[in-house]
Amino acid sequence: MLNISLGELKSRELDIVYLDFEEKIDSIDVDGRRVKVTSPVKVEGSIANTDEGMYLDCRITTVIEDSCSRCLKNMQVEIDAQAQGFLVHKDEEEEALEGEEDVFLYEGEMLNFHNIIRDTIIISMPQKLLCSEECKGICPGCGVDLNIEECKCSKEQTDERLIDPRFEKLKDLL
């Protein structure tokens, strides 16, 4: 049910359309990488006709799989987000974007809910995912997972690998 007909709302035959559906989405593209969606996307809410236009208010929940920012292990992330804003026809986009409210664009009589789901998930994803606050990450020298084993680099080797060759002469001053 990713396409929702808005015809009856636009013609004022209905004042409100309730949303309660699940949709299976395999993955979404986020900043050029593919993020796996591991549970069906659940959408609950409504689209109401108001004096100012059609207003969407819904809750979107799902679980995605992404990698820890430090150790790169795959982890599950629960998404529980609200999508709220006016529905605006694509031809009226410029006027609507001048306002301060969030808007969702539609074409013809249909609202493509896939874009709303994708954008809501992307906005709700944490900027930095951590499998735990204590995650030690990966050694930049030898590449071992520091949560599992000790670093195999000697301190001196690590320092030499991390020094920018342009600043190597400064090391002699120490």
Rg measurement, Å:
24 Å
- N-to-C order of helices and strands: EHEEEEEEHEEHHH
How far the N terminus sits from the C terminus, by CA atoms, comes to: 66 Å
Mean pLDDT: 87
Total strands: the figure is: 9
Low-confidence stretches: none
Specify the overall morphology.
elongated
* Number of H- or I-type helical stretches: 5
Structural class designation: alpha+beta
Number of individual domains: 2
Helix content: 10-25%
How big a fraction of the residues is strand? 35-45%
Query: Sheet bearing the most strands, described?
Result: 7 strands, mixed
Architecture blueprint of SSEs:
Blueprint: E1 3-5, H1 7-10, E2 16-23, E3 27-30, E4 33-37, E5 41-50, E6 53-67, E7 74-89, H2 93-97, E8 103-106, E9 110-112, H3 113-124, H4 155-162, H5 168-172
Parallel strand pairs: 7-8
Antiparallel strand pairs: 1-9, 2-5, 3-4, 4-6, 5-6, 6-7
Protein name: DUF177 domain-containing protein
Pfam family, one: YceD
